[in-house]
Amino acid sequence: MGNGVVQAVGERILIVDDDIAYCDAIADILAYAGFRTLKANSVDAAVAILAEITPDLILSDTMMPGTDGRALLRIVRGNCRLRAVPFVTVSARALPSHKSEAIAAGVDGFLAKPFTAAELLAEIGRQLNRREGKAA
Asked: How many other β-carbons are positioned within 10 Å of the β-carbon of residue 10?
């Protein structure tokens, strides 16, 4: 697997984005790669899922109506059961300063929209491999 893409073994990824078609497209890419996906179209829906399930990774848009991805990050980082879950932000705001702000806020990874399936899978692989390294 020298291509940098993780071999999925059923890890659960929570996708949070207000754009339903986008969530479905990302879920299809991840399912094809062997991941199990959970989808939430709002932060409230994500919080409801997180009350029941601890995913292996959260992939969240930053800009959503109402409560945004930054608020979800604060909720996740403030929960002792969830705080170690890798959190990858996806955003159409793609300036280097936006990435720096996201990293400073506590995200583990940042993907600028639009991104390719290969970029998505590579970032997820990095985050899951990093998490496994911390657990070892």
From this structure: 8
Identity (one letter) of the amino acid at 62?
Answer: T
Which pLDDT score, from 0 to 100, does residue 119 have?
Answer: 96
pTM comes to: 0.87
Q: E strand or H helix at 28, and its extent?
A: helix 20-32
According to the model, what pLDDT value does residue 54 have? Answer: 97
Instruction: Supply the pLDDT for residue 68.
Output: 81
Q: Are 47 and 81 in contact (CB under 8 A)?
A: no
Contact 33, 122 (CB under 8 A): no
Task: Name the band, by pLDDT with cuts 50, 70 and 90, for residue 9.
Answer: low
User: What DSSP assignment string belongs to 56-110?
Assistant: SEEEEES--SSS-HHHHHHHHHT-TTTTTS-EEEEES--SHHHHHHHHHHT-SEE
Domains parsed from the chain with CATH numbers: 12-135 (3.40.50.2300)
How far apart CA 19 and CA 40 sit, in angstroms, is 10
